[in-house]
Amino acid sequence: MRVKLSNPALLRGLLAEFAFDANVIVTQLSDDEVEVSFLGSLNASAQQMETELRMRAWLSAHPEAIVVVRE
To answer: What does the domain layout of the chain look like in residue ranges?
Structure first.
């Protein structure tokens, strides 16, 4: 899943949000976009749901952010 932020300054905080979980691989694609994938047996739908759940939690602490999540 790709996650694009409206403000590149927020990227470091987003990376920290995913960094705590050893089952998540986050690859920075640009100064405002990352790709998130999960290790293990999650199918694409489950990965999307997990990414969206984590993004909602992160967005609750960063209401100024606009995020686009896509496959």
So the answer is: 2-70
